[in-house]
């Protein structure tokens, strides 16, 4: 955000594509950063529909933000059963510098993450701590566990193949 800009929070969503190497294979993650506010709940649903993974973030220095995590996790469990969930505590730089700033206990969240079978991490956008590791994990899980495998995609039609040509011209008059 530029100097003097007014922070209105995310409205709608922002998109970025990120290439990640998993065992020599290039995986392109399409990442939608959706608004955290429940005000935009219906709109956010449009963006995460069909998602294979969701990183649900909360602010380690704000207890109420963790309560909202539960709201979004319920949403995902109800509407996106094939979506893997990652729970992410943000602003880890602040709690590392001053432990009294921490409002959400790591072990409490770990218990919750275990319960819902989610991966948990704590990151900092400011220092970059654990951010790359988290996206790497998302990409690796996608490759290793996803039921959608690129190799199992149906092959395209080979227009030079006689067999294919025959089958695709048989209905012509
Ligand atoms: N110290 C510190 N501040 C951060 C960090 N991440 C975000 N902030 C600050 O927190 C405020 C909110 O950051 P945003 O990235 O807009 O938060 P958000 O969760 O994306 O907000 P919504 O999209 O509206 O839900 C800004 O003032 C950021 O500078 C972090 O890792 N460390």
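Sequence proposed for the structure above (173 residues):
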């Amino acid at each position: 955000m530029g100097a003097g800009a007014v922070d209105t929070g995310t409205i709608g969503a922002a998109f970025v594509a990120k290439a990640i190497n998993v065992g020599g294979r290039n995986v392109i993650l399409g990442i939608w950063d959706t608004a955290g506010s429940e005000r935009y709940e219906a709109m956010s649903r449009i963006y995460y529909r069909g998602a294979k993974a969701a990183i649900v973030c909360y602010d380690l220095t704000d207890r109420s933000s963790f309560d909202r995590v539960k709201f979004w996790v319920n949403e995902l469990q109800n509407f996106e059963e094939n979506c893997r969930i990652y729970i992410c505590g943000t602003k880890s730089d602040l709690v590392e510098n001053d432990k009294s700033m921490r409002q959400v206990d790591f072990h409490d969240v770990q218990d919750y993450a275990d319960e819902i079978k989610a991966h948990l991490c704590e990151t900092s956008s400011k220092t970059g701590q654990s951010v790359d590791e988290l996206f790497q994990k998302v990409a690796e899980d996608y490759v290793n566990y996803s039921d959608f495998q690129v190799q199992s995609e149906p092959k395209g039609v080979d227009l030079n193949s006689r067999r294919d040509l025959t089958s695709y011209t048989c209905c012509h008059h």
